[in-house]
């Protein structure tokens, strides 16, 4: 399964189009909030989105729990969990939901980190990048089911398609 992960698009649907033209074989597009409606009417790819602090309340859920090829995924924007300060509240929520992968946005700063067996992914922002990566970014997540579990590979890209090797991540989650 190949998943494109975006966040904080803030109306930059042109960049979403650019990414999807590059990755024609996407199985799912995940939007981690702030202009989640940028993907609401897409017919070319299956989409899931959540509300961010810049979205109209109720236009999408605040969070979604997804089963993606056997992997338990929590999708949220992150503003309700204070992700600009710490990942601790989001980590507690991940544990409550038994999430193995947590996808969030809000800070506009790309993050791929594993803590206590939970992988946290922030794809950065398609509109207003912050932090050490000064260009708009998105992530591609590949999930392969194996006899022993699910192999997850995550790559971070600039909107122009350049990969950031320092953000590469790969892990196999054992079957429970």
Keywords for this structure?
single chain; about 180 residues; mainly beta; Purple Acid Phosphatase, chain A, domain 2; 6-stranded mixed β-sheet; 5-stranded mixed β-sheet; about 10% helix
At a glance:
With 176 residues, this protein is mainly β. The chain has helices at residues 13-22, 88-97, and strands spanning 2-6, 28-31, 47-49, 63-68, 71-76, 101-103, 111-115, 118-122, 137-146, 149-158, 169-174. The longest helix has 10 residues, at 13-22.
Write structural notes for this entry.
This protein is mainly β and 176 residues long. The protein has a single domain (2-174), classed as Purple Acid Phosphatase, chain A, domain 2, CATH 3.60.21. It is built from two helices and eleven strands. It has helices spanning 13-22, 88-97; strands at 2-6, 28-31, 47-49, 63-68, 71-76, 101-103, 111-115, 118-122, 137-146, 149-158, 169-174. Strands 3-2-1-9-10-11 form a six-stranded mixed beta sheet, with helices on one face. A five-stranded mixed beta sheet has the order 4-5-6-8-7, with helices on one face. Strand 7 (111-115) and strand 8 (118-122) form a beta hairpin. The longest helix has 10 residues, at 13-22. The chain is globular.
Shape by Cα distribution: globular
Helix content: 10-25%
Can you write the helix and strand succession as a string?
Answer: EHEEEEHEEEEEE
CATH topological fold name: Purple Acid Phosphatase, chain A, domain 2
The proportion of strand residues reads 35-45%
CATH class: Alpha Beta
The CA-CA distance between the termini, in Å, is 20 Å
User: What is the CATH superfamily classification?
Assistant: Metallo-dependent phosphatases
Q: What is the typical, i.e. mean, pLDDT?
A: 95
CATH-level-2 architecture: 4-Layer Sandwich
The total number of structural domains is 1
What about the largest sheet? 6 strands, mixed
Q: Look at the helices and sheets and give the structural class.
A: mainly beta
The total beta strand count reads 11
